[in-house]
Automatic annotation (TrEMBL):
Keyword Membrane on entry: yes
Membrane topology type: Multi-pass membrane protein
Protein species of origin: Heterocephalus glaber
Pfam entry (one): 7tm_4
Protein name: Olfactory receptor
Spans traversing the lipid bilayer: 27-52, 73-92, 104-122, 143-165, 199-223, 244-267, 273-293
Domain G-protein coupled receptors family 1 profile: 43-294
Family from the record: Belongs to the G-protein coupled receptor 1 family.
UniProt KW Cell inner membrane keyword: no
């Protein structure tokens, strides 16, 4: 389909969708999303403030946790404008270029989270398998280099996506299936040859989620081997306990991704509401759960929060 000037048609705006089949009750959905955003933003800001203020938390593990919290804030703020506009103000239109920008940031922060979780698994590997060299291996400069490397990798691999989408004509309508912009969603309303988009998208997924998850599993295989070599059962449990927060964070991130992939691959006839709800879980649950997980499972974080709470009361 061609525009009036002979160029491929690209709509000025795209229409976002709430939850399919839910014509009433959006007020309750809006309230749920507002609560999720509030917990996520307050929780991650609290983690960042705590690590900055408490000298005892100026350690590699908590620097990586700060990266995770900062990234989770990025995920939340990337989706917040259109989600609140859709559910709170019933405004469902987003500019085409603004949609591409949002798509880029959502996917970039998502892939960065995978890289940060990999870096955190390396932190746990060094702490348990080579504790005597922990401070010399994970220096501040190396942690900074790892963080910049994760950012650079995610940015460069995702940078072509907006341009690959912008070259396509859109002739299958302008209605998206979510309250935010995702690359697979845009491909459903694009026409023309989308093979390059699909092939490159698959490459990026394998290059990030696939490679990162393999190295995370490898790290924990080596950690488990080292732990089983400890004679004392009490020391074994203590070593494993230091990994529990990270394991929960990995599960909170990867389980929804696997579930979305399995539904898309093996349950193509699933109602659209199932796909939408699983995508919402994938984007909204990890940023909300991560601060809770680390607050509950990490004694130093829990003590710091109680200390700040006590100061605020006095």
């Amino acid at each position: 389909m061609q525009g009036l000037n002979g160029t491929p048609f690209q709509p000025a705006t795209l229409q976002l969708t709430g939850i399919p089949g839910m014509h009433t009750g959006h007020a309750w959905v809006a309230l749920v999303f507002c609560i999720l955003y509030l917990i996520s933003i307050l929780g991650n800001v609290s983690i960042l403030a705590l690590v900055i203020q408490e000298p005892a938390l100026h350690q590699p593990m908590y620097y990586f946790l700060s990266m995770l919290s900062l990234n989770d804030l990025g995920v939340s703020f990337s989706t917040l404008p259109t989600v609140l506009a859709t559910f709170c103000f019933n405004y469902r239109h987003v500019g085409f270029d603004a949609c591409l920008v949002q798509m880029f940031f959502i996917h970039t922060f998502s892939f960065m989270e995978s890289g940060i979780l990999l870096a955190m698994s390396f932190d746990r590997f060094v702490a348990i398998c080579d504790p005597l060299h922990y401070a010399t291996v994970l220096t501040n400069s190396r942690i900074l280099t790892m963080g910049l490397g994760i950012l650079t990798k995610s940015f460069t691999t995702l940078f072509p996506f907006p341009f690959l989408v912008k070259r396509l004509p859109f002739c299958k309508g302008t209605v998206l299936h979510h309250s935010y912009c995702l690359h697979p969603d845009l491909m459903k309303v694009a026409c023309g040859d989308i093979r390059v988009n699909n092939i490159y998208g698959l490459f990026v997924v394998i290059f990030t989620y696939g490679v990162d998850s393999i190295f995370i599993l490898l790290s924990y295989a080596l950690i488990l081997r080292a732990v089983l070599g400890i004679a004392s059962q009490e020391q074994q449990l203590k070593a494993l306990n230091t990994c529990m927060s990270h394991i929960c964070a990995v599960l909170a991130f990867y389980v929804p991704i696997i579930a979305v992939s399995m539904i898309h691959r093996f349950w193509k006839s699933a109602p659209s509401v199932v796909h939408v709800m699983m995508s919402n879980v994938y984007l909204f649950v990890p940023p909300m759960l991560n601060p809770i997980i680390y607050s509950v499972k990490t004694r130093e974080i829990r003590r710091g929060i109680l200390k700040l709470f006590h100061k605020s009361l006095t």
